[in-house]
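User: Need the bound-state model for iron/sulfur cluster:
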Amino acid sequence: MSSASTSRRRRKNNSLRKDKMEEACGVFGIYAPGQDLLRLTNYALYALQHRGQESAGIALSDGDNIHLKKGPGLVSEVFPHLRDLEDIPAVAAIGHVRYSTTGGTRPENAQPLLIRYRHGSLAVAHNGNLVNAAELRDRLEKEGSIFQTTTDSELITHLIARYGYNDLESSLKGVLPYLHGAYTFLFLTEDKLVGLRDPYGIRPLSLGRLNDHYVLASETCAFDTIGAEMIRDINPGEMVVITREGIKSTQILPSHRSALCIFEFIYFARPDSNINGENVHLVRKKLGRLLAREHPVAADIVTGVPDSSLTAASGFAEEIGLPYEMGLIKNRYIGRTFIQPRQEIRNIGVQLKLNPVKKVVEGKRVVVVDDSIVRGTTSKKLVNMFFKAGAKEVHMRISSSAIISPCYYGIDMQTHEELVGSKRKIEEIRQEIGATSLGYLSIQGMLDSVGLPPEDFCLACFSGEYPI
Ligand code: SF4
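Assistant: Bound-state model below.
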């Protein structure tokens, strides 16, 4: 596929997105012979469901073969019963939940991907986005590769099959330098589990322990769910290989700096997860506190947009000394898949999903805390809803800075045109969404909240400075 057709399709896909950035996948892996790996992986995927709702899958190795079950939908829809894989005495497994950025929503794009090549079987689960995917695909297709999916994740399997060696570690060492962008990969062969992060560590990956066995997951909440303990985060450019003999760590690619996506703290990760030793809930609370210090306002109540902004809203309320109220209720029974990719349906979707509590907001000056504004359409509808519900004033406060640049590393905002903050000043955005006032947290405020060195993070969508 040409890069032009890829970007055309991408633009088309983007125009169909709902107005919130989306994470692009969660991964889980476990090496634990004799354990009920199917159920453990299934439960871990439930814990990671917030990272992707379009498809789910599990690959299990029985020591000789890899068995795969995957499909479109939520974990509960793909695995309503576990019968299909139930009787397999597995030694290791990987699982994946997907939200598509590159490649769209085709059923064949569900992961893990499974290939059988001259060195055996290989299952792959990927979180991230390769910035040179179109070029690589072009090159491989010219050399004779036939792709089964439209995802960038499949590239690594072709590179390994074409240029790889007998063992997976040497193959990865040889082919990883071809890849540019954000990638956290889990690989499963008949007898080993491999996890690695790109040299910037843009997407997270943590290592945990379940009794005497090792587990890997995008977020530590998956460890809690299955009773595993967090050991540490995998470092940027680090590869861990887990086999019957134990675990071996290698710095497979040199890493000069970390560039973890700061949105993991602001929006993507579950509040009960810890990243780089910091708890996501506590960071969000601090984001809200610093937001209140930077943008105080005379108001009656503070409320948050469920679910990811509730913690920041409570921090804001505490700092400013105003009551924190549930001013907006989310209908939890509308899955994201309900929101069909048509503008008119999308409009209805917001109203079905969120509803202001009239008796709480009527006649009040309301501070509404949200974690971000991407396209601005949801914020506009929210402000309108609050006014319609009787709010006297609606003060929007955003617990991140203005998003001015696209993300090329796996988050669903890939063009300047779709970003309301790209070409407009704050006052113009305020007018666009119709709020009484609007305040964004500064980049410094975000960094102070996270409490880790600024050079450890990717801030590209706020600053326009891309680490890759
Ligand atoms: S550009 Fe923004 S959303 Fe993308 S990885 Fe960097 S911080 Fe995260």
